[in-house]
Amino acid sequence: METLIKVAIVDDYEIMRKGLRMELEEIKNIKIVSEFENGKEFVDSLNKLDLDIVFMDIEMPVMNGIEATREAVLKQPGLKIIALTRVDDIESFQNMLEAGAVGFLLKNVDKITIERAILSIMNGNNYYSGEMMEVLTKNFLHPKKKEELIKLTNREQEILLLICKGMRSSEIGEKLFKSHRTIEGHHANIMSKLGVKNTASLILYAIKNKLVEIE
């Protein structure tokens, strides 16, 4: 028997929830557990729910998606949050990534892309829709020529891949049998070498310049 993937939808517009629900209902092994109109309703109910993935709108009343994601990930570190956003919402993308989101989809997403995102995230990867990556890389950085790319050590390359897959320093430390402080040091060194200022820019740089391969 195949395992059901349990999801929730958090969006203040009923028409958006309905549209996403219709797409999800056509995907095999998906169970929609609940829907919420804002982040606070979701966070307040989280302890009563058994969820794998949450589709989270960003701009909502009472509590927005950024705050809700940050609180939800603190309560349930294994929860996977997929942000629903506009293609031009660069600042919110960065804030959601830093809050703990592992996927980003446009609000007009189709069933095939949703299914691809769910599969990728359930396999431990981050997911960014093609349209999002195109716009984000244009806004955050420019691809480097091969001769301009800075070489990372094997350890830094390994840590960079895990960062791009959405793992936190503590999780990377456990996986590699290193202290949290050691991983944080490597993280800082990687950002310094690549000339980026935050994790969001680091991930985009790595993907755009093909330093890692994210499925």
What does this 3D model show about the protein?
The protein is an alpha/beta fold. The protein folds into two domains: 135 residues, Response regulator (Rossmann fold, 3-Layer(aba) Sandwich), CATH 3.40.50; 64 residues, Orthogonal Bundle (Arc Repressor Mutant, subunit A), CATH 1.10.10.10. Helix content is 50%, strand content 14%. Strands 2-1-3-4-5-6 form a six-stranded parallel beta sheet, with helices on both faces. Helix 4 links the parallel strand 4 and strand 5. The two termini are 26 Å apart.
Domain module count:
2
Helix residue percentage: 40-55%
Structural class, from helix and strand content?
alpha/beta
**So what's the oligomer here?**
single chain
The named CATH superfamily of the largest domain: Response regulator
Largest sheet: 6 strands, parallel
Strand order of the largest sheet: 2-1-3-4-5-6
Strand content: 5-15%
Determine Rg (CA atoms, Å): 17 Å
Q: What topology emerges from the helices and strands here?
A:
Layout: E1 5-10, H1 14-25, E2 30-36, H2 39-45, E3 53-57, H3 65-75, E4 80-85, H4 90-99, E5 103-106, H5 111-122, E6 127-128, H6 130-140, H7 154-164, H8 169-176, H9 180-194, H10 199-208
Parallel strand pairs: 1-2, 1-3, 3-4, 4-5, 5-6
Helix pairs in contact: 2-3, 3-4, 6-10, 7-9, 8-9
What is this entry, summarized?
The chain is of the alpha/beta class. Helix content is 50%, strand content 14%.
List keywords for this structure.
six-stranded parallel β-sheet; Rossmann fold; 6 strands; globular; Arc Repressor Mutant, subunit A; alpha/beta; 215 residues; 2 domains
